[in-house]
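User: Fold this, then the next.

Assistant: Folding the first:
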Amino acid sequence: MISKIVKWIIISIFLPFVILVGFFIMLIKRLNWMLINLSIHPNVSTKIVDRNGNLLAYIFKDRHRLYAKFDEIPSKVIEALIAIEDTNFFEHQGISFDAIIRAIIVDIKAGRFVEGGSTLINNLWKIVF
């Protein structure tokens, strides 16, 4: 009788855990595929040039934005962004379970939403979708 209860408890805890891990693995694989095939086209300022290609003016509505290629961004800016936003960026697959658990604990202790477990990938996902 006790062995049936123990088996039932183990199965009721283990099975949802396995399903959840499988779901996250599938989500991470799908997220990586989507990011590889995703193209983002932000609204950028329009350049007005003369017939010789000399820049005359920029036209923009709300914000003056220019597109910068990855090579044009200084490495220190990239390092600063990663240091501020997601220190473990190169160590996880887009979802930082440690950060999520830490955020849940901090939020529970505070009794309100104080901290998030977002990564750079999570933030990109929010912006795009």
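Now the next one, as you asked:
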Amino acid sequence: MRLINCPAFFHIILLSPITTHIKINVKNNQINTRNLTMGRNILLHCHFFKNAGSSIDYALRRCFPQTLYENKTEFSIVDWNDFLASLLQAQPEIQAVSSHVFSLTPPKIEGIKFHCLTMFRHPIERVTSVAAYDKKRNFRNSTCNIIKNHKITLRGYIKSYLRDGTPASIRNVHTMRFAGEDRGTCPATQKDFNKAIAALNQCPTVGLVNNGAFDESMVLFEEHLKPAFPNIDLSYIKQNVHQRPQSINQRLRQLEEQIGEELFNILLYKNKKDLELYEITKAIFYKRLQEIGSISDKLENFRIRCKALRN
């Protein structure tokens, strides 16, 4: 481990070529961006929890082995514009940043062009993965006291997190993140939904996890990002994947059987905006995919590259 002395407002402890931890003390929220490289392209991965983000991070580590910054610990930073400006000024070699806290609306920093990418997963199907992950970790990261203090079933978990006043981790979470909002327990509003639609329309690199669209999403990302990153290669090996029924409809029916029709319908209602946003995202995604020339050939080439990694 080595300490890099940087401008007075922060220090960087470099732990590895990939992951760094940064301690920032910004005075008066003022950061000098004059020294940032003009015309610099930065890829931002908006890593949604349980939306196949680990597989994307795997691809980014391969593609940017020395120039990827992964934020896995800094969840309490108040101003991410300031944070990114400080990070990119201190480390001009960085080309990509991955974090769980980014939204689809890129920050505005002089001399930097940000390229955001993220994945959208069916919001109801995602719930089972969130619950399974929490259970695997013995709910130690849960902020819901009901979850912490009781051995709980999937039905109990979902029922607890659908209550008002609990973290909105399974209630319209895509709408809130796309809109750039994080209001804790507050429900998503129509204003949030409108902001999410605007962000979706402005970001050409939003992919889909479900229905076998992950590879197509990665090809879409490569095609849109090539002008800024000519050598981009997002081939990957799947990470954090568990055996599930192949069809999303099968998985949804299985979830309804586990938690009961009444609670399943409440879950649908509490994710009404996300479900509508998902359908809009699908339509936009496949339209963008059709606009790519020779998509079948490019998809075949991409899958050959992925297979080569597994062999």
